[in-house]
Each structure stands twice: as C-alpha cells, then as structure tokens.
Backbone:
C-alpha cells in the first residue's frame, strides 16, 4: 500500500505544474546521447506523448551531428569543422539533408507514433517555415587585411513563419523539425539546431525552451551545478571561461529567448531517463534554468 501512496503523492506533486502548463507550448531541442541510446529514445518518446495527452503542446527541434558524421565516413567524405560548425559544401549538404530530414527525423516520428502520439516530420522548407541566410566569418590578424572565411552552405535564421506549426497544433499533431532551411533564391542551408530551437521558441512565444544535453547543466568554477542563472551571470561566466564549447550557443540563445518573452529556458541532462518529466513536474528539477 505504501508504494501506491508514493505513486499518488508523485502525481499530486505534478498537478500544480500540469495546471500551469496546460495549453502552453514547450519547445525541446533533442540531441546528444538521448538520440542514440535505445532506452533513452523510448523514454523521450513516452515523455513527449504524455505531454501532449495532458494538454501541453510540445514542439521538437532535433540535431544529428554524429549520425551525419557516420554516413559521411561510410561514403568516404571528410567531416571538417570551423568554430564548431560543419563546413558544408554541396556534397556535404546533400548528406546533411538526407540524414536529418530523411533518416533521423523519421525515426523520431516513428518512435513517438509508436508511443501513442501523432507526430509529423518537417524541415524548415515545409510551409516556408524557416527562411535562411548564409553565414560568413571574418578573421582579423594583426598586420594583415581581414580574411573572409566561407564555410559553405551553413546558414542562420533570417525569418521564422509559425503558420504551419499553428495549423498542426490545432489538429493535435506533434511537430518534429529538422534544422534545414532555404534562402530567398531557393538554396538549402544547414542550420544549428540550438539556434533553430531558440528561434522557434521565440516565434511561438513558448512557455519554455528545453535543451537536452550530455551534461547535468551549467556548472560553476567549483564544478557544482548552477540551478538558476540570470543573463548577467551567464555573460560573466562566458567572459571568465567558465562556460565554453558547445554550451556557449545554448546559454547565449537561451538568454535571447528569455529576453524575447520565453518564460524560462532549461538545460538538462538527456542521459537521465524521463528527464523532461523530472524537470517539468517535480519541485526540485534536475538541470539549470535561465530566468529573466
């Protein structure tokens, strides 16, 4: 009987959060080990399906870097990066689109549908959802003229059109978005999934933006998890070198999101089964939240 009472108490702990988030949109950036481990993939699909059934509207933006790398290796193509971004020539762009849109996206759709949800796969091309523009970098070296660095078909979001997502939401579908966009001339671009997730969250005026990662969250100098951070604290931690690597775009775009109206941004450990449920519906939570 005690075990059943504990289960009842767990449900009651979740009740205020379910009421608070009912009818709200939550954007999830899905990546890392949670996309690779079979058990974690199933638990993620269960979590997303549960959110939809209790009246929350999840929107998923996924990555797929490791999967792209494996296919390129099999095809005898070299993966090259600049500032953490994949250098994307025409041949690489074909592989990126094939893997993200044709393989990874449909696997996620299938998992959620098998869990009882109604998922539908999209890329930024569908419904003119994401208008992209090319990214270029300029390197300045002392005593030399500035050098323009061209990394190919790598883009950023110029414009986000939420119309297709609003239509799908009204029909009870769960959108799964691959980070591929197109410019005004019809050229396809590879986009950073963290940035796309943030742009989608801002465009939809989402209640929350959640990044699933392969780390507990943001840690301080002492290695302890920072449970809550404000924009000015994040800026200082980046300057001090406490936040580095792939965490930088997550926190920087997380800050942009909360400053643009997203209520909270969460960076959580996707290696923990049912991490979404633990973060959203328990008092303690499990990761780092970015607040205004």
Residues:
């Amino acid at each position: 009987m005690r075990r059943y009472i504990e289960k009842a108490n767990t449900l009651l702990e979740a009740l205020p959060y379910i009421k608070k988030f009912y009818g709200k949109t939550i954007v999830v950036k899905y990546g890392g080990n949670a996309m690779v481990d079979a058990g974690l993939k199933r638990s993620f699909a269960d979590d997303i399906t549960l959110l939809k059934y209790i009246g929350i509207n999840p929107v998923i933006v996924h990555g797929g870097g490791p999967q792209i790398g494996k296919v390129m290796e099999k095809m005898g193509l070299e993966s090259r990066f600049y500032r953490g971004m994949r250098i994307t020539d025409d041949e690489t762009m074909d592989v990126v689109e094939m893997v993200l849109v044709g393989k990874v996206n449909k696997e996620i759709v299938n998992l959620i549908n098998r869990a009882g949800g109604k998922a539908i796969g999209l890329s930024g091309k569908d419904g003119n959802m994401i208008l992209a523009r090319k990214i270029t970098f300029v390197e300045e070296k002392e005593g030399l003229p500035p050098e323009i660095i061209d990394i190919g078909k790598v883009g950023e979001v110029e414009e986000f059109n939420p119309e297709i997502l609003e239509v799908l939401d009204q029909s009870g579908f769960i959108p799964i978005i691959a980070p591929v966009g197109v410019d005004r001339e019809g050229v396809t671009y590879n986009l950073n999934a963290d940035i796309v997730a943030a742009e989608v969250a801002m465009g939809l005026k989402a209640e929350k933006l959640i990044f699933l990662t392969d780390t507990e969250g943001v840690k301080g100098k002492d290695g302890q998890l920072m449970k809550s951070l404000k924009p000015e604290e994040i800026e200082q931690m980046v300057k001090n070198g406490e936040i580095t690597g792939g965490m930088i775009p997550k926190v920087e775009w997380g800050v942009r999101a909360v400053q643009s109206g997203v209520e909270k941004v969460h960076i959580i450990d996707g290696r923990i089964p049912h991490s979404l449920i633990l973060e959203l519906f328990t008092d303690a939570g499990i990761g780092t939240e970015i607040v205004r």
In short: The radius of gyration is 19 Å. The chain has one domain: 23-124+161-179+191-282. The first helix runs from residue 2 to 21.
